Amino acid sequence: MDTMRDRLAPVVSRLLDEDPRVAVVLAEIGRDCFTEASRRHPDRVLNVGIREQLLIGAGAGLALAGMRPVVHTFASFLVERPFEQVKLDLGHQDVGAVLVSAAASHDWPAGGFTHMAPGDVALLDTLDGWTVHVPGHPDEAETLLRHAVGAGEAKDDKVYVRLSAQSNGRSLPVDGQRFLTVREGRRGVVVAVGPVLDSVLAATEGLDATVLYATTVRPFDSTALRRATGAAGTDVVLVEPYLAGTSTATVNDALADVPHRVLGLGVGRRELRRYGQLEEHVTAHGLDAATLRERITGFLR
């Protein structure tokens, strides 16, 4: 099966053909995937070199000129390194862009800690007005990319699409807004974000718990959560493929008027200083099915 990132260039290249507003801004990473699109649209496929601050600045400039820029590189270089430009060039200037990341929290361990970004969503949470999509399957990534760019819709909002090498076994009909209920129970709610769904389903097999699937986490679907907790009780477990607890405050806000408990599971703050493999990082952070089952079961008891 192809990866989420494999879908990026074909989808965005088609959008370039369909909508003259769409532009692509790269910082070396991914440039070979857009070779043909660059030949067809040399004025709308830009490579700024290894200059991540300029990457965001160029995207903001295109947005100020009325374009819909799609800006792409690894998450650590897209959100963390040029954060001031994300804050000012996009946020302060009140223009939008579609930031599409790769490498997620630890998808390429051989790249070292410089290529890991478990805090990207939490960092964007310090800014106003961002939509955040976290697809869990390549088909969902394609759907959410198209939704984010909005070809022909004159969209100008700020959207972050977090692509990952991790994937669930099957796609679900995501719409860029709502959580999906994939399992119903009566003794707690587990919210699985993006590519952790398969592990969560394995971890909760046989448990009397509701499982919600979230691929759009900002805005957070508080309505779906409140509906689920009304039927299953107000013990909530969040399983996120990035920094543990990123959405805990959001859940607390959604349930502020009722007594509740929240357990936030995700990537820990401790830096793992050996490269290892992706699966080893998942296990080390307790996001494998066996560890999730132990922690979820203990909490819901």
TrEMBL record:
CDD domains from the UniProt entry: TPP_PYR_DXS_TK_like
Single GO molecular function: magnesium ion binding
SUPFAM superfamilies xrefs: Thiamin diphosphate-binding fold (THDP-binding), TK C-terminal domain-like
Domain Transketolase-like pyrimidine-binding: 2-171
Residue ranges the record marks as coiled coil: none
Name the record gives this protein: Transketolase
UniProt source species: Streptomyces phaeolivaceus
